[in-house]
Records
---
Amino acid sequence: MATSAAQAYDLQTSPTLLGNMGGLRTSLGEHGVALSLSYVSEAAHNYSGGKKELTSYTDQWALGTTVDMDKLLGWSGATFQMTITDRNGSNLGADAGIGNNMLIQEVYGRGQTTHMTQFWLNQAFLNNQVQWKIGRMTVGEDFASFSCDFQNLTFCGAQPGNLVGSYWVNWPTSQWATRLKVNAAEESYVQVGVYQVNPIYVDDRYARHHGLSLDNPNGTTGVLIPVEYGWLPTWNGLAGSYKFGGWYNTSDGKDLYQDKDREPRGLTGQAPRERNGQYGLYINFQQQISGTAGGSGTSVFLNISQADRATAAQDHQLALGLQNKGPFGRELDVIGVAVGATHNNGRYAAFMRQQDERLGNPASIVGDGYEYVVETYYSWAPIPSIYLRPNLQYIKNPGGARANDNAFVLGLKSGITF
């Protein structure tokens, strides 16, 4: 007996709240068009740390479409993606004066406004062995890609963007780019990308007026070239993902400590030394270690990134954690626990202290150590399209500075897939 559309999109089983939308999704799907609309909100309250105790709230809407160009136009192997995002709200770390490096609410940032986050075409060749992607893209959707299940930015998204976000641009900001991926074997791939580096794209004033534009503003300084090798093995039938990558930004970078004569610029007050290029390395490991393949069970992850110490104010970050899907027999629920550390570059701290001394300013609070973060959450999903995810965060030495009080934060991340 055939399953009716109403049964297929039962609220208790449907991944989308609006189901088949009266048959619209099925009708569009027959022509290769898939629509998506989602909402994510993140509230946070600091019970300790910072200059004042308060609650902040931020959110993001994401509207997108994925088009199978073969079904729509008979264009074999091609997929088109467009996503528009809109962010609103406030930042607890800044509002409460906590002094943290990594956002307590990862969905905040890049201007509380609308962005054309994705506008690209992916063409597959040789039975999907080779893929070429071109258009407006975010770096983290392809390189060092990682989920955003946690609320603290330490454990969310492509980690290199947490260190060098001025040129490694993650969601929701995009730039013109291209990526070539080759599936070298059944369990491995290699890929390389070329991404425009233009500081205008990450300027909030530009985003407020041109966030939806597909223009190419003046100000390009170079290109970011990431390279990644991925190994995707199975262990006792359970999937793993092991990524090894590096990047090079052809743009010149300003030295954090030395001036143009290679003297301490905090003491001389001279222009910083120009460095030819900026670079770094990363690893991104994930492995399911128990349960059923792709279903309930425990997975572990390890992310480590290192940026060059000449130009990166935060020069390395590591994060380690686990997620358990289906606890207490609830298949849709998840428990997550993670610990992480972000290191502040001592060269930049030395510059700031020397500059304050030269100018006779009060000593700035500037970190030269690690900002440590611990987060745990429980994700409760009453139905597949909705989740509520209360979390606890503890931030030790915010901003890598012992002078900043440790912060204890209660958060709530929630999401709806329409």
---
Amino acid sequence: MERDIRIFAAERNGRYPTFGARLRQLFWVEKLNNTTGLVLLLAFSLIFGMLIAYKGIIAGAVILAVLFVPTIIYGIVAYPLFGVSVLLIMAYMLFFIMRLGISFPMGTAMDGIQGLLILGFFIYQKKYPDWTVFRGPVSMMILIWIGYNFTEVVNPAAESRLAWVYTIRSVAIVMLMYFVFMYQIKTVKAMRIILKIWISLSVFAAFYAYKQEYIGFSGPEEAWLYSDPLVADLLFIGGRWRKFSIFSDPVAFSYNMVVSCILCIALLTNAKVLWKRIMFSGLIGLFFTAMLFSGTRGAYVLLPAAMVMFLILRFSKSVLVGTAIAGVFILFLIFVPTGDPNIVRFQSAFKPSEDASFNLRAANQKRIQPYILSHPMGGGLGATGAWGQRFAPQSYLANFPPDSGYVRIAVELGWIGLLIFCFLMFFIMREGINNYFTIKNPELRTCCMGMLLIVFAFNIGNYPQEALVQFPSNIYFYLAVALINITKRLDDKENMKLAGL
């Protein structure tokens, strides 16, 4: 304060002690609310206008990045809830932004956001140390799983070390988000904000799928659909295009619609106000019908499977009646004669023996079993799929289509890796069931149940498809896992306050 008085006194006398004091007066004290500020803003406006006029949208994007990116970076590190929200939104909107024609390494941007969240995690740990997030069987199994993936770099059966380099970041960094979520989501209010963001993004994705179904694809989307014959082979079935909404492919779209539907079903059970019941019921119908546009048969069985788990957890007369009504509706959809291609494909999901693609996958899995049994550590991380074809195209696994998250793990990480992964899923499910039956707060209990059902559905869906490797499913899966434990922690704190401890 005294220093500011000295600077003002110096200004009145027309003298400043130092050049730094002059700058402080202009930028910090007066905040450019002066002639200098007016001149600077006018100069920047002219420069920005000329750049946009000559370079177009690219210059505009660069200018916006220069102005806002530093602020966003600071916000992600300094304000954890803001950072988590940015991650969740970007995970959903990633491929939608890419299809707008923005030429930017968005995958690297996602890695950067996650890296900033991890940096913020350690900064907050230094200020407010709390390493309890690393306790418990789930945290331990995640660390073991990450550690095992790192040991794959020395796998003697691996054909390429570069494939490991490109794959490990999507495994390790994404899984570390579990610890970020566990540490940074500390209040019921923060949990509510995250759930609102989740549902809002799902609503946008569902309505965009309706737009694709009844209005058509955008120009960039059509260009992508016709850019590669393989895309058409996968997405053009039965004389119609499978819809993918804002996601990378129909599988990611359908799985996210299913888990959003499950989330709303869980929240509906705790809705006390009529308008909330109507809203959640409407959202369930919206997500379910949008999911049908995807033509992903693997997703169709997830909701009935989750409802079986729901019935076990919430067994009561009213739940039994509601589940029975839903079951009759699904049976009606399965057996009703129809010419609607969406419902016809839905019905085919429950007749796998008549599905040529299902029989082909079963044959591929049978063929690869001897390799899995003879390679306890697998063929190396990234041995199959795009990275295998890029870095070891002549290898045995490069052209093998796993078509399943579990099969990919068994092939790349061996039966040892598959065993560790199954133990991880077992401990997550066990923790979720234990927490659900011990949490007392109805809101937290409902959230825990919803996350448990989502984890269960993703595990079922990870067999017919690769459910946990693509944005946003990989991020939201570990968010659900973290919320299973966060709800229990918040409930324990609430009970301790009530007990006066």
